[in-house]
Amino acid sequence: MKKITLILICFHTVITYAQDHEKNQEVFKPHHSIALILGHTNTGQGTVDGENKWLSLPSWALDYNYYFNSKWSLGMHNDMILETFKVKDHKTDQESIERTRPIACVVVVSYKPGKHFSFELGAGGEFAKEENFLLSRVGVEYSMELVHTWELIGNITYDLKWQAYNSMTIGVGISKAFGFRKK
């Protein structure tokens, strides 16, 4: 009889906790977010005075995302490198390509398997007055909730510019969610 009573008490506790846990979970509502990120874009294909150099260039990003559910989002990520620089030309390996404050616009799909990390994949273009390039992007982002709908974010993205150069950006920023209310 004592064993049955003990088993009933354990099951009652588990069932009660499970029901309470379900009541406290938030219902996801689709929403928008905008992020402003300060970063450095790095490339190993830079040239300075005709010599190959590793370049670390200051950059800004303005990212927009629409969250369909708690795991998936679709966004437009826009990066701007703040300096003029030269990179080695893939086609000739002799000449340099000048880039004057290029802006990259990328359509990105993001997947967030847990609470903090997101993985992104996208395609778009890098635009500068000299020449435009198609690009593919992969990235990872870590987010941490600050207050209400504000988040602190850190990200690493890798851009493969087709027929041009590659770059990696490391950034830190802040994002704000819109279109839903948190309890």
How would you describe this structure to a colleague?
The chain has a single domain (28-178), classed as Porin (Beta Barrel). It has 1 helix and 10 strands. It has one helix spanning 2-24, and strands spanning 31-48, 51-67, 72-81, 84-88, 96-100, 103-111, 117-127, 133-145, 150-161, 166-178. Strand 7 and strand 8 (133-145) form a beta hairpin. It is elongated and about 60 Å long. 29% of the residues are buried.
Shape: elongated
CATH architectural designation? Beta Barrel
- Strand fraction: over 45%
- The residue-averaged pLDDT reads 85
Strand arrangement, major sheet: 1-2-3-6-7-8-9-10
Secondary-structure blueprint of this entry?
Elements: H1 2-24, E1 31-48, E2 51-67, E3 72-81, E4 84-88, E5 96-100, E6 103-111, E7 117-127, E8 133-145, E9 150-161, E10 166-178
Antiparallel strand pairs: 1-2, 1-10, 2-3, 3-6, 4-5, 6-7, 7-8, 8-9, 9-10
